Amino acid sequence: MMATPVLAQESAAPEVPAAPATAQLDTVVVTGEQPGPGLWKVSKGEHVLWVLGTQSPLPQKMQWRAREVEERVAQSQAVLLSPGLYIKSGVGFWGRLALIPSLIGIRNNPDGKKLAQIVPAEQYARWQPLKQRYLGRGNKVEKWRPLFAAMELYGEAIKRNGMTGGNDLIGERVEAFSKKAGIKPTLVKVTVDVKEPRAAIKEFKHSALDDLDCFSKTLDRLETDLGNMKLRVNAWATGDLAALRALPFTNQYAACMQAMQGATVLKDFGDINAQTKQAWIEAASKALDTNASTFALLPMSDIIGEGRYLSALAERGYHVEAPDDVDEVPAIAAQP
213 in helix, strand or coil? Predict the structure, then answer.
């Protein structure tokens, strides 16, 4: 069952002590041309899969020196893009246009409630100084569900700290290299088929989301992890994998994705994260068996974080080598 949100009085925002101001961080995000990390090599016999670990966010003013990636893509017969979720609505262009009016207000809390009436008082006290610092005094976001408010806050916070979303940037460059090489990239995806999109939108607007954990972890990350976040983006940009492995990683995305998957329109489709991982492993195995060379993208957290997709390929008999020759697979395979 979904957790019941703790409601504050509707007449006024809760009177709680202000949260302490977040300490100013002096870590400088790198700029200029940077090499990025090396490539993981997965092989069996003469067949090779080259894997680039992607990172988000990335330094805002970095130019990625991607010569090795371009060369590996040019030598490959297939390119696998990062795995993701695809929502199929079964409507064409005009049908999508007709749906636009029903999307208005989709981010808002049901029944017109404000954020102060949805989140616990302690979380709202932490939210206020962060919101003022990064979003200003506007009240539009105060109508939004905690999930969407957290996403808006996070996006503006990384921008103000010299960072930008990285996965799209990397994906676009790899797609450009693929086009130049005459390869149509493969999007590894799990498809959710929404038969009646208008009804699904209406249902989503009126359904509760168990998104307080997402909201809280986003606040945690902005209060305590911005310094490490800058160190991580610098480590990716300069190719320092030892630093990436050593730095603690607080990931609010898992909690936010879990909240979205708990929505009525998605919860009947099972564990989408597990399905996505399995889809990528199957696509990678097929590509390895079929092609002499394949290039693939994976989030860095799925390579050296908890996801560790490549250990599943090792268990199937493929040989996995890290760019810095660190043999990670035995330690991964030993985990329960």
Answer: helix
